Please model this.
Amino acid sequence: MQLPEINRRAFIKGAGATVAMVAASRFLVACAGDSTPRGYGGEPRPLPIPPLAEGEREGNRVIYRLTAQEGQSNILPDVTTRTWGFNGDHLGPTLTARKGDEVTVEITNGLGEMTTIHWHGMKLPGIADGGPHSPIEPGETWSPSWTVSNTAATLWYHPHPHGLTGLHAYRGLAGAFVIEDEVSDSLDIPKDYGVDDIPVVLMDHRFHEDGSLDEEDLPDLGLLGDTPTVNGITGAHFDATTRRVRFRLLDGSNMRFFNLAFSDDRPFQVIAGDSGFFAEPLERSSLIIGPGERWEILVDLEPGEDVTLRSVAFPGNFGVPEDEYTPDFGFADSFDLLTITGPAEEAPSTPAIPGVFDPAARQDPDVIDAPERTFVLNTFSINDQMMDMQRVDVVIDHDGPEIWEVTNDNSDWPHNFHIHNARFKVVSMTGTDIEVPVDGWKDTVGLPPGATARLAVEFGYHPDPAWPYMYHCHMLYHEDQGMMGQFVIVEPGGQPADQLGGGSHAHAHHVG
Ligand code: C2O
Ligand code: CU
Ligand code: CU
Model:
């Protein structure tokens, strides 16, 4: 419960002196906890589409430049809110790369405090992963490079400074990272970015009376919001110009699970999970997404019709008791998220949805002789331990899959387990009656109370004893409170280094 205090001070210190005084006095007033729930209604506003990052490309080498900066945006209509963004006021541009590309991202920290940037879902060397061992100090630039080995998928990027990930993401540091490959090239599906291929970044916030973000951690719930946003605004509206739209859904919130459905319960096709396409599309009329997860869906729209993407109450409250002793994680909430209007009558008709997307996704990792490890999640701990930046919890000394068996040992809390530098298939989910969608390759999996998931995990193999990867609960308050562990990948028989990471200045250089 100490960290949030420090966080706020750091934020205030980072702003210009005058602004800092104002912010400080506002904060003192706001400290009383008078957060104002806002209607997400009002006049609908056009859904903002994060710009595609303009990289510098030469053959299969691409360089992106991102600056994390402070700004102001209109999350709510007619109210200005101080936010953070990459190359802009709020959120970040969508980065794109192809499998096989050599990517460099030069990230400059234009904030008043240290942060890090992590490539969620990417298989890459630990030194480029951007976890808590890769701080970027204010004014510095960090330039990781790696070769993309992921198949086509919707990945994302967000900060990862230990203890502060939730707050930095909440202020707006998040963006999509889209990977394409031969399979995505070959599919006859919507792929015109911003036209019929639409990123949908879901978050939630709380606001003070004056429009500033309420950054108070609620007991047990951290930065759970009461006001949902899509691509950074409330009341978003999308005017479709085509009869079929592909939504790349990303839950970038700190703590909120959404149970997505359309207002008329229309069926839609789920075509991809966190780490890429399914073998075959899956028809559903509702879909659970938790913090850190992604799904891609195809929705067909009739000319002129109106339909709303909503989040509706979870069947069985996601297994979380509904009593006065249990925190309200929001599973009973319902929200309108995005209103949608169908295309004009002249919009061309759509082709049949491909029956097969990625046939290779049928194949599960061969885990017959794979090492097995167990992870027991309870409140803020994993296997009874809290995160220690200098402790290695797991050493992987081979280039093969493993079975990770992950149990949510809490009877009343949900968790959402994520592994860096990896993708997995959920082999089984037991210990719960709740139906959790676990199809396809994933990197994050929701665990209702009591649930045990057996994961067949494939890691990227870039042995390096000094640069650990993280596994953690992606409910960011849990992560920041210590629900995280570290694994190191080494050569066969290898040992982790005595000193992890490179120190705060070893891999970022000063610019300007
Ligand atoms: Cu989005 Cu450590 O993760
Ligand atoms: Cu990650
Ligand atoms: Cu958790």
